[in-house]
């Protein structure tokens, strides 16, 4: 599908199948070859702990155990997972994600999985999400030895964080972050879950944004998804005009290499597609057994970390297929669009309801705005070069 972009000086044609932008419609016919090496997995997710040492009021995972009995993965279960991966002939894992609950409560198995899988498989990147309250010698040694990418959960200043995650938790998480900064550890970011309670207590997103900017860390802010509907953010915080200004600011941040600044997800998706020719066939390409393997704490196979324990769903295939929604099927930017399938199924998506009906979508307008900005920037070769070359530093997941 060709999308036309008309500027004062030229007419551009954007091929939404291969993300080629040209002044000639005849030059937009390059095909994208999807990687099809069955020995390479894009992602392996292993839930090493079904227990958590906090009781966050919005937790979508029933306190971390996903409706099951609290437990830590045992070595015997870890060995079965390792055996299954090896038996599939896997020689490379791009992202090994060790998850929880709180993953560091089971640091021994955490380390064991890295060590054993590394004996036969090339692991490009190890990742984990932590609440940052467990910082013992074993955790410190693991960080020093394996240099994983850490996502540390911090919801904002002490008042709001402790309200959501428990008294004293902010102090402990901040201590963890301060330790990472003390050892000059750059391979981490802070993740904030934004709730209705933030709004009620006078913490608009601009305040949370400034809090993390002043802290001088990489961060991102996500709206909460929770069974506790009282905490769900009920309205869009940013108008369409503000979201377009955010796109412009994000492009400037990439050009100026402001790597700690949070950039617009729209910019992120458009540039990934245009620069790396990364095409999303479905709403979530991670839910693909050919490229992703997800294991629960008991060793059972799951489609996604959101569907562990008793959180199963038989609707994943239905919701993950863009062809099932006419407005998505006919959209010029569908190959760049990503949307969380679990959020759709559980009723948190602003685009598609839990009844599989289309609500509304502003992504066409926003992605069109983004492409126009890129066309404008491309007139200066030096600026375009910075945009292309600097993007890799902003990629959180590869």
Automatic annotation (TrEMBL):
Pfam families: Radical_SAM. Keywords: 4Fe-4S, Iron, Iron-sulfur, Metal-binding, S-adenosyl-L-methionine. SUPFAM superfamilies: Radical SAM enzymes. Residues 46-193 form the Radical SAM core domain. Gene3D superfamilies: Aldolase class I. It comes from the Bacteria. Its cofactor is [4Fe-4S] cluster. InterPro entries: Aldolase_TIM, MoaA_NifB_PqqE_Fe-S-bd_CS, rSAM, rSAM_sf, Sulphatase_maturase_rSAM. The keyword Mitochondrion does not apply. This is Radical SAM core domain-containing protein. The lineage of its organism: Bacteria, Bacillati, Bacillota, Bacilli, Lactobacillales.
């Amino acid at each position: 599908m060709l999308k036309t972009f008309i500027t004062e000086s030229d007419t551009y044609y954007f091929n939404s199948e291969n993300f080629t932008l040209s002044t000639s419609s005849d030059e937009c016919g390059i095909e994208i070859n999807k990687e099809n090496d069955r020995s390479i997995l894009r992602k392996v997710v292993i839930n090493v702990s079904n227990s958590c040492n906090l009781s966050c009021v919005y937790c979508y995972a029933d306190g971390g155990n996903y409706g099951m009995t609290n437990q830590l993965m045992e070595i015997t279960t870890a060995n079965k997972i390792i055996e299954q991966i090896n038996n599939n002939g896997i020689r490379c894992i791009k992202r090994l994600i060790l998850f929880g609950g709180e993953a560091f409560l089971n640091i021994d198995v955490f380390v064991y999985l890295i060590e054993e899988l590394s004996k036969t498989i090339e692991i490009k990147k190890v990742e984990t999400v932590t609440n940052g309250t467990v910082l013992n010698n074993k955790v410190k040694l693991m960080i020093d030895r394996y240099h994983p990418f850490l996502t540390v959960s911090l919801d904002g200043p002490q008042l709001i964080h402790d309200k959501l995650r428990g008294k004293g938790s902010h102090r402990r998480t901040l201590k963890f972050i301060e330790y990472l900064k003390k050892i000059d550890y750059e391979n981490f970011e802070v993740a904030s879950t934004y709730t209705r309670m933030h709004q009620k207590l006078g913490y608009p997103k601009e305040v949370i944004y400034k809090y993390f900017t002043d802290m001088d860390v990489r961060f991102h802010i996500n709206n909460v998804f929770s069974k506790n509907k009282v905490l769900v953010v009920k309205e869009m915080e940013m108008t369409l005009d503000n979201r377009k200004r955010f796109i412009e600011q994000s492009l400037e941040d990439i050009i100026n290499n402001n790597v700690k600044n949070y950039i617009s997800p729209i910019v992120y998706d458009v540039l990934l597609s245009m620069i790396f020719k990364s095409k999303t066939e479905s709403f979530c390409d991670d839910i693909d057994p050919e490229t992703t393997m997800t294991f629960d704490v008991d060793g059972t196979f799951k489609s996604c970390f959101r569907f562990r324990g008793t959180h199963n769903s038989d609707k994943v295939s239905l919701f993950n297929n863009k062809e099932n929604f006419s407005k998505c099927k006919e959209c010029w930017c569908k190959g760049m669009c990503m949307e969380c399938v679990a959020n759709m199924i559980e009723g948190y998506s602003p685009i598609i309801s839990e009844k599989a009906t289309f609500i509304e979508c502003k992504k066409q307008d926003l992605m069109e705005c983004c492409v126009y900005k890129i066309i404008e920037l491309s007139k200066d070769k030096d600026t375009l070069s910075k945009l292309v070359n600097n993007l890799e530093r902003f990629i959180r997941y590869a």
